[in-house]
Write a structure and sequence with these properties.
By secondary structure, the chain is of the alpha+beta class. Helices cover 40% and strands 15% of the residues. Helix 1 packs parallel to helix 2 and helix 2 packs parallel to helix 4.
């Protein structure tokens, strides 16, 4: 068989810079609320802009997968060692760790993850689920989506994670990414409604009267209600109670500064 020959090449790398700029513009101009789903913790320049938005009073919910990621564990250990010994911060993700810790201090910002309550005890051979199961038979789920909604008006979905390898060119990076950024209130609101319904009422249809009443209640921004539910579910989880819905707040500062450096999930202290 003949070896294929590349006769023309297409450089797709500029796409990721456009995605970065789209996000940065939204972070700088958002007025009310943001919902983000991303496997990773964020890009420093985006997190700086996000911190300013939070300081302006914007409600922000960041859904993150707390699964063990070796590079973050390695860099978190390095970051802790440098802080403990008052050495210069050379960890690749030092700015990310610092900004994540700062963001969590604000009541209108919340890191969270998706989860479910297992109605019956897990079988003894369910090792993967067992590693994700905590108090109250609540189970942390995997999250791999990349979706953001700003002010129920702008949304973006695609392959790019909030991390340097998705946005920048240097010795660490080089991913090719693609995304659709859409500015349309009806579309963005419909997407946010469906996501919120899953987080708040995962087992009820979207046209259920109770669901519609909550989703269309204008007295409180939808993202702030999601934040409240996520924090309430963390309290339920720690008390050994079934969570209500499918969203749980995680303690990102504990993850960065105090969690065991091993292959375990990174939720919050005493989650198992």
């Amino acid at each position: 068989m003949a070896t294929p020959t590349l006769i023309a090449g297409t450089n797709l790398s500029p796409g990721r810079h456009e995605i970065f700029d789209w996000y940065l513009t939204r972070f700088q101009t958002v007025e009310r609320e943001i919902l983000i789903e991303s496997t990773h913790l964020g890009d420093p320049l985006h997190l700086e802009a996000l911190l300013h938005a939070v300081q302006r009073g914007v409600q922000v919910l960041w859904l993150h997968d707390p699964s063990y990621i070796p590079i973050f564990a390695h860099e978190a250990k390095k970051y802790r060692d440098e802080l403990a010994h008052d050495r210069p911060l050379t960890s690749r993700y030092s700015p990310v760790f610092r900004l994540c810790t700062e963001l969590q201090r604000y009541s209108n910002f919340c890191y969270a993850t998706v989860a479910a309550h297992a109605a019956t005890p897990l079988p003894a051979d369910a090792h993967l689920l067992a590693s994700r199961t905590g108090r109250g038979n609540n189970v942390a789920l995997s999250l791999h989506s990349k979706l953001s909604v700003f002010d129920s008006e702008h949304l973006i979905v695609g392959s790019a994670n909030h991390i340097d390898i998705s946005f920048h060119d240097d010795r660490h990076n080089g991913h090719t990414e693609a995304a659709f950024g859409i500015s349309c209130r009806s579309t963005a609101q419909a997407v946010l409604d469906k996501v919120a319904r899953f987080y708040l009422f995962p087992h009820q249809p979207l046209d259920d009267e109770r669901v519609l009443e909550v989703l269309h209640d204008t007295r409180q921004p939808l993202v702030s209600r999601l934040i409240a539910r996520a924090r309430d579910n963390q309290t339920r989880w720690l008390a050994g109670q079934a969570i209500d819905g499918s969203i749980v707040a995680i303690d990102i500062a504990w993850w960065i500064h105090d969690s065991p450096i091993d292959g375990s999930m990174k939720m919050f202290a005493n989650w198992q």
